[in-house]
Write a structure and sequence with these properties.
Length: 415
């Protein structure tokens, strides 16, 4: 009897122990699971699908981290700034280089220097892109992708008028544009007059968009020389057109529809043109030199960390994966975005890709799309007045002086 009771007693003890262990195991695993919130703006459906796939790969490799991905589809920066003020911002979020100077100066972003270890190989990033997210000797963001601008030209139109190679200087581009316009009964060149597409022309004659204090200075004599090229081609040559002149919504669209034979666009135009206008025969080239200088623009976006994040270690794990070699290769492998790591670009062969090679080459001499802490004041005033000058409603000098004065008055009020 005693022997049987002992076994029963042991059985009960073991059952209780198993139940106790099972009861506590689940809460323990749940406690270790960290949720990191990531926010970005809405891109194309292809981009959204790809990012979610990359995030799934990250979660598979980091079972203790769950990523809550949020798309902010409207007024992205206004939403982010409001949440930062209210301590409700995501742990990690997209930050465009244009908006970076202001946020980096406001002590709301976590410096990443102490997280970056030698194995991460920060030297692998394109210097021009990384510098856009540096402030007072600290790195605040790691660029996830980029695009420069290149010349897109219709090879069939070129052949029809006897042109065999793309223009290499701006004077050649104007000459080509005139020839294409007269012989094809279409515009030779599609012009996008906003500052984001004109800043490198200002720089070509040693002009500046802003001075060291962040005030607008694009009305200088040097700056006007680059901008005058645009005015002359539009007004005198009559060989260029704006998108509104030909009833389209973008430079890529007016080129794809055959309304213009040449246009200056970014990497994003390649998949768009291939998918939307599959019969279009086109090629790309580096932008023609201006004043014997190579020039283009570069646009980039980084992942940054909220300084108030409660999960900084996990947030860094996410950032380092997305901008590490493996994550970046998955993100940029389809070609809709260019990798910011030189090794990844080389692995994917973009430096030899017939359409993307000019875009990759341009990053070494590109002008970053970054115009101080108050970009809206500078950009909006420039765009409004430059279009007015382009349409002949006022002189270029008068327009730029008016824009510069208004922009600087607004900046003074915001400082």
């Amino acid at each position: 009897m005693k022997r049987i009771n002992l076994w029963k007693f042991l059985g009960v003890v073991i059952a209780i122990a198993i139940a106790f262990i099972g009861y506590h195991r689940l809460p323990l695993a749940t406690t270790n699971l960290v949720t990191v919130k990531l926010s970005g703006w809405a891109g194309s459906q292809v981009e959204q699908k790809l990012l979610r796939q990359v995030l799934q790969d990250f979660e598979a490799q980091h079972p203790n981290i769950k990523v809550k991905y949020e798309v902010i589809s409207d007024q992205y920066m206004d939403v982010i700034k409001t949440r930062l003020i209210g301590d409700a911002a995501p742990d990690v979020f997209y930050l465009d280089a244009l908006e970076a100077p202001f946020l980096m100066s406001q002590n709301v972003l976590e410096p990443l220097d102490n997280y970056i270890q030698p194995a991460f190989n920060i030297e692998d990033f394109e210097v021009t892109l990384l510098n856009s997210f540096k402030y007072q000797n600290h790195i605040y963001g790691l660029p996830k992708d980029y695009s420069t601008l290149a010349l897109f030209y219709n090879t069939k139109s070129f052949t029809v008028v006897g042109l065999n190679t793309p223009p290499t200087t701006w004077s050649e581009l104007r000459s080509y544009s005139q020839k294409l316009t007269s012989k094809l009964n279409k515009y030779g060149f599609g012009e996008l007059p906003e500052l984001a597409r004109q800043a490198y022309k200002i720089k070509a004659f040693d002009g500046q968009v802003i001075d060291e204090s962040g005030y607008a200075t694009f009305a200088s004599e040097q700056s006007l020389q680059g901008l005058q090229l645009v005015i002359d081609q539009y007004q005198k040559d009559k060989s260029s057109a704006q998108k509104s002149d030909v009833g389209t919504n973008s430079g890529s669209e007016m080129f794809g529809q055959g309304k213009v034979a040449m246009v200056i666009e970014g990497n994003w135009a390649i998949p768009y043109l291939q998918e939307t206008f599959p019969q279009l025969e086109f090629a790309t080239a580096e932008l023609p030199t201006i004043n014997n200088q190579k020039g283009t623009m570069v646009f980039t976006v980084a992942y940054v960390m909220n300084k108030q994040s409660q999960h900084k270690a996990a947030a860094w794990e996410l950032i380092s994966y997305l901008t590490g070699k493996a994550g970046m290769q998955k993100w940029t492998a389809t070609g809709f975005a260019l990798p910011t790591r030189k090794s990844v670009a080389q692995n994917l062969g973009y430096d030899k890709d017939i359409l993307r090679k000019p875009l990759v080459a341009g990053v070494n001499y590109a002008t970053p799309w970054q115009i101080g802490k108050y970009p809206a004041a500078i950009m909006n005033n420039f765009d409004n007045q430059f279009v007015s000058a382009l349409l002949g409603q006022q002189s270029l000098q008068q327009a730029m002086l008016k824009a510069q004065t208004a922009a600087n008055q607004q900046i003074k009020l915001m400082e």
